[in-house]
Design a protein that fits this description.
It is built from two helices and no strands. It is mainly α. It has a domain of about 40 residues.
Length: about 70
């Protein structure tokens, strides 16, 4: 390939060639990405569930400013 690739500027042209581990590296990157997305959606769902699970009870006496001293 050295003779076939002659740059116009006269400088050495570097052609990146993936090594034998490249498919595994791409697969690992994709797996980590999917795991991260699944975990983020899971935590988002837990956060929404905890926010929607909080029920604030307001009674009439509390709304009128009366205190329960018992």
């Amino acid at each position: 390939m050295t003779g076939a690739t002659q740059p116009l500027s006269g400088r050495t042209a570097y052609i990146p060639v993936p090594d034998g581990l490249f498919p595994f590296e791409v697969t690992a990157f994709a797996v980590f990405g999917v795991v991260f997305l699944v975990a983020s959606f899971y935590h988002f769902k837990l956060g929404i569930r905890s926010i929607s699970g909080r029920v604030v009870e307001v009674s009439a006496s509390t709304a009128l400013g009366e205190r329960d001293l018992s």
